[in-house]
Amino acid sequence: MEGESTSAVLSGFVLGALSFQHLNTDSDTEGFLLGEVKGEAKNSITDSQMDDVEVIYTIDIQKSIPCYRLFSFYNSSGDINKEALMKILSSVKKTVVGWYKFRRHSDQIVTFRERLLHKNLQKHFSSQDLVFLLLTPSIITESCSTHRLEHALYKPQKGLFHRVPLVVANLGMSEQLGYKTVSTSCMSSGFSRAVKTHSSEFFEDDGSLKEVHKINKMYSSLQGELKSICKKVEHSEQAVEKLLKDINRLKQEIKKRKREQAQAIREKNVQKDPQENIFLCQALRTFFPDCEFLHSCVISLKSRHISKSRCNTNHHLNMIDNLTLMVEYTDIPEDSPPGTPQIVKRKCLDIGDGWQFKKSRLVEIENNPSKTDTDSSNQEKATTISSPETDEEIEKMKGSDEYPPSPTF
Amino acid sequence: MARRAVQAALAVHLESDAFLVCLNHALSTEKEEVMGLCIGELKDDPRYDSEFARTGTETRPVAEKVDPVRIVHIHSVIILRRFEKRKDRVEISPEQLFAASTEAERLAKLTGRPLRVVGWYHSHPHITVWPSHVDIRTQAMYQMMDRGFVGLIFSCFVGDKKANIGQVFYTCFQSIQAQKSSGYERIEIPLHIIPHVTMGKVCLESAVELPRILCQEEQEAFRRIHSLTHLDSVTKIHNGLVFTKNLCSQMSAVSGPLLQWLEDRLEQNQQQLQELQQEKEELIQQLSSLK
């Protein structure tokens, strides 16, 4: 989708010149406007798929040619007198972009005759883009102290005269902080001459700018400094990194050695003096006097197998005081609701009863190695594990529904 | 009941070429207010004099001393630099006034007319043409040294943006003591532009002063910046190029178009010369045939 917008620009000096001509004339004044039309395509990306190309036309009004009389090139019907027109514009080198008219004390409305004339001018110049500058000066106070000059630029579009925005170019216009893409076209020969005289001080022979070269060189030097310091820093970083690695490595090594040493000491200590679990030994001998298997080895406090030979030392541990938790047997009332697992230990047991139970089970295990799978596995476990744990053993002796009482001896 | 305060200036007659210099100056920038001084003379309006003679004794109390009211005729203007560029603080320094007076004396000698500084003008870009309180006070101050001193204001870069209609206003005023409050208020002074078909020498010279003054202002601003000792070399280079950039803007926006206008004017005059020469010869022939 293509969009189009037109605007016009003229310098304050052109507007001043027009006003000057008018102020020096009693009647309305008119004349021609010369300049050029520039088009700039601007791509605007919108939400739609297609790129919106907007063409912006700028009518640059650079010069005015006054007509010294009204009706100098046309008649009351708006018909153009071509010869007169040619004479007025005989020395004109620039393009005619439009015409103007000063109308005192009137409104900013294009008259019928002006419309006709404009159409005829468009035909004559074979240009549909001709514009009409209407200036309407007036006095707005009774005392004649205050005057107003209104101006508007008209361009016909589909038969209707639309007003085109007209900007008076000046020094204070919004400053472009970036690069300028357009320059105010100046056709002044004096201007070109002055600029050309000093061109060589700014431009090289190939058209490049001296200032640009100078600053580029300085920037390069700065960049060179950056590169050199970068290299130095890089080396120092690498050195730091290497040393950090070495230090870490050494620290790790030290830790490891210390750990190994500590371990060795511990093991040595353990090997030197493994303490026999005398309680266990005595208990096994006291309560399982006939079970050779349980007396077959010596177990340390940490459940390590110290010796494969039996301990023959009498540890003199009093059965009552050191080995058992002796409590008088009483009937525990069944107050726990049905379904609760019998986690509650039976606090006391007749030694004999419990004892018999256990003994029978053990004997069973010993005498009937191949009785049941569970039994055999129990036996296997009992014989292969070199450091039997009494809790574990009791676990194995569990029947399918019975919770064995905890060992009280 | 006639007001006690009598306006000291009856009207202002501004020559069109002087007006052109003011207008060009006002349209040169929309960013800040510009100002200048008006050079001219006071003239008696013969119409007024007779009217005064007729009605003066009737309407004015005898005790009141009345200076003859005159017409301020402005021949040319002097473009001034603004040292203080604060908004709505358009003030002319005593040095500038003195320099302008000296220039007026020079012109007086040149033209043989009793020229002096008769008023001041300034612009109101994007602002209404009416003088602000500061303007009215400033004007009142000038009137204290010269009763006939007048003020002109040019309002530009205004208009109906939506309707794409541009406007330029210009007004003439003086200050009088406010009746109700203790301050001053403006009074309107009739302003007429006097046709001057050709541009006078003085006005042309004033017109080309504009770029020179702009350049001077820029140089002054740069000199102040460059003299700051705490700035490093890179900043100084930057500032130097900002100066270059600003001068380029001036060349493109002011010097160039001004040159262009003057070249066009020259071409126009040369063409007109041919036509006028032809017309003159025809008239001479006509005259000789009548003899």
TrEMBL record, chain B:
Domain of life according to the entry: Eukaryota
Stretches of the chain forming a coiled coil according to its record: 259-290
Enzyme class name: hydrolase
InterPro entries: BRCC36_C (IPR040749), JAMM/MPN+_dom (IPR000555), JAMM_MPN+_peptidase_M67A (IPR050242), MPN (IPR037518), MPN_BRCC36 (IPR033860)
Cofactor note: Binds 1 zinc ion per subunit.
CC per GO annotation: BRCA1-A complex; BRISC complex; cytoplasm; spindle pole
Protein's UniProt keywords contain Nucleotide-binding: no
EC identifiers of the protein: 3.4.19.-
Chief location category: nucleus
Keywords: Cell cycle, Cell division, Coiled coil, Cytoplasm, Cytoskeleton, DNA damage, DNA repair, Hydrolase, Metal-binding, Metalloprotease, Mitosis, Nucleus, Protease, Ubl conjugation pathway, Zinc
Subcellular location as annotated: Nucleus; Cytoplasm; Cytoplasm, Cytoskeleton, Spindle pole
Any one biological process term the GO annotation gives: double-strand break repair
Residue ranges annotated for the MPN domain, each copy included: 12-179
Cofactor: Zn(2+)
GO molecular function terms attached to this record: cysteine-type deubiquitinase activity; metal ion binding; metal-dependent deubiquitinase activity; polyubiquitin modification-dependent protein binding
Function as written in the Swiss-Prot or TrEMBL entry: Metalloprotease that specifically cleaves 'Lys-63'-linked polyubiquitin chains. Component of the BRCA1-A complex, a complex that specifically recognizes 'Lys-63'-linked ubiquitinated histones H2A and H2AX at DNA lesions sites, leading to target the brca1-bard1 heterodimer to sites of DNA damage at double-strand breaks (DSBs). Catalytic subunit of the BRISC complex, a multiprotein complex that specifically cleaves 'Lys-63'-linked ubiquitin in various substrates.
Subunit structure: Component of the ARISC complex, at least composed of UIMC1/RAP80, ABRAXAS1, BRCC3/BRCC36, BABAM2 and BABAM1/NBA1. Component of the BRCA1-A complex, at least composed of BRCA1, BARD1, UIMC1/RAP80, ABRAXAS1, BRCC3/BRCC36, BABAM2 and BABAM1/NBA1. In the BRCA1-A complex, interacts directly with ABRAXAS1 and BABAM2. Component of the BRISC complex, at least composed of ABRAXAS2, BRCC3/BRCC36, BABAM2 and BABAM1/NBA1. Identified in a complex with SHMT2 and the other subunits of the BRISC complex. In the BRISC complex, interacts directly with ABRAXAS2. Identified in a complex with ABRAXAS2 and NUMA1.
Record PANTHER family: EUKARYOTIC TRANSLATION INITIATION FACTOR 3 -RELATED
Family from the record: Belongs to the peptidase M67A family. BRCC36 subfamily.
Protein name as it appears in the record: Lys-63-specific deubiquitinase
UniProt source species: Otolemur garnettii (Small-eared galago)
